[in-house]
Amino acid sequence: MTQPKSLKVRVVEVIRETADAHSLVLEPEEGDRDRFGYRPGQFLTIRVPTTREGGAARCYSLCSSPVRDEKLKVTVKRTVGGYGSNWICDNVTEGDVLEVLRPSGTFTPDTLEEDLLLMAGGSGITPVMSILKSCLHAGTGAVTLVYANRDENSVIFRDELIALTREYGRRLTVVHWLESVQGLPTAEGLGALAGPYTDRRAFVCGPGPFMDLAVATLTGLGMPHARVHVERFTSLSTDPFVDSEVVLDASAGVSTVEVELDGQTTSVSWPRGNHLLDVLLAAGLDAPFSCREGACSACACVLLEGEVTLDHNEVLDKQDLADGLILACQAIPVSERLKVTYDG
């Protein structure tokens, strides 16, 4: 049976985290719960009501942990001129139903057992919080969080972080950087805080300048670039909830792709000139995606056999491509037979 592309969630609680940040606690419809499995650090794409041409959709990270028996929770912080964030903070109340896509994203650790260095700025704490809680609850490693904010009142999850520090003792170290006290973060300051942890894997999320500074600082300290993971979000210019049509052109030919997804293997005809994601969705497969613009990596999968071209790519670097990663929303087949996996 073809799965519906979008899903519905009910808002069961709205939590005012700070003056400009709200958390939404969400509950899927009963029959959809198995489609909301997620990994720490992943996000939801939420449809925002609008009369704008092209619609409006925004990606918000899950701050809940999939291993702590917590309800789904996303945190939304207002931004100046931010259509989606301001609409949600002004309008969404308990009992509302939102349209979303299934959780997705690649900002997630491969294992919960290793020691981690987490660096967050402002609302960038959201996916980092999911990773932090999951590693502490289900793993055995140590976690250090460096968290930058304007002032003490801007610290999202302040009380929860205090409680977690008490619960996990020496396994969790939280270091706050407050602009009101220390000024803007500096390479020297972040380097002093991160220096003892360069043997760890790092996850970085926050405003662009903060992430750029953090990455430059970590790599400057000798941390291999492959161990530094960054989450970047961009406002979507198209509506990912709208179906894309698969165009059949007999003169272009048809490839065949074998797809490993959610533990099952399926062979699908892939008409040349069409993107892999559109073909999979049209075939009824529940392939993950978000932006459909080649800008978020939510649809990333591994090409095991064959060759493709990518129409657009803003997120995969040379090493990712060398490792076989492709973006399903931008992949066009070159070979007659291909094989991809989402389960690797």
Automatic annotation (TrEMBL):
Keywords: 2Fe-2S, FAD, Flavoprotein, Iron, Iron-sulfur, Metal-binding, Oxidoreductase
Cofactor requirements of the protein: FAD
Matching Pfam families: FAD_binding_6 (PF00970), Fer2 (PF00111), NAD_binding_1 (PF00175)
Domain 2Fe-2S ferredoxin-type: 255-344
FAD-binding FR-type domain span: 4-110
A GO term, aspect molecular function: oxidoreductase activity
Keyword Flavoprotein: yes
Stored SUPFAM superfamilies: 2Fe-2S ferredoxin-like, Ferredoxin reductase-like, C-terminal NADP-linked domain, Riboflavin synthase domain-like
PANTHER family associated with the record: 1,2-PHENYLACETYL-COA EPOXIDASE, SUBUNIT E, NADH OXIDOREDUCTASE HCR
Name of this protein: Oxidoreductase
